[in-house]
């Protein structure tokens, strides 16, 4: 690892506005606050325990390549940094089968607003107990603390995986197919990923008249919506621009902004109380808004 967690904590310090900087693939830091960079590099891969330990600034491409040598992977998008994906809570398009980003993180040493390195979580699934602080940090955009190093849950790379396309209704395919890994839809075409035994995958493709595809469609990167899966069609009915929706998950990759969601008073009050506990002087990633205000 190119820097220690203690050195990272010292760089964050306890005074002045500070922002975490990565590769900039997910927007990067806001405003002119002082930038800091988390440790990077892979510390260890424990294939038997199915965990990997690395710095938060480790590029996902580097991590994916290293894990592939052990026949494993992590359910995070292969873009940007590990910490960036966790900070924005960006799950991979395999979330339908393999779960959200918050389920990938087992343990982290994060740096608080006081400039101190603090451990949250446990190194293995069986050791995680008590208040699950990791889940609170995932998706908080670095406003509660900066990821320093992390221990992630890995999973085996499937023996056989194939992408298909279809003009059938995506909801119909979601209900009829056996454990699809991903079902994507752009309003006219449906993409399906199936993993498993090659004979089973071929049989499913033949049964539902699925056509082979080179891979998933290109995802719009301008905006990412989150809607209830049951209301996805209604949410997209009046939208303009192009999109790719993750069926059964409720994530929409869109070229246009999504509907503005203004949380109720109790939700806003809860967020503000949590922020006050973790960052009373509002110095971490200043300018980042996690929700719209009325």
TrEMBL record:
Limits of the FAD-binding PCMH-type domain: 1-157
Family annotation (InterPro entries): FAD-bd_PCMH (IPR016166), FAD-bd_PCMH-like_sf (IPR036318), FAD-bd_PCMH_sub2 (IPR016169), FAD-linked_Oxase-like_C (IPR016164), Oxid_FAD_bind_N (IPR006094)
Gene3D superfamilies in the cross-refs: 3.30.465.10
GO terms of molecular function: catalytic activity; FAD binding
Keyword field contains Cell inner membrane: no
Keywords of the record: FAD, Flavoprotein
Family annotation (PANTHER family): D-LACTATE DEHYDROGENASE (PTHR11748), GLYCOLATE OXIDASE SUBUNIT GLCE (PTHR11748:SF103)
Protein name: Putative oxidase
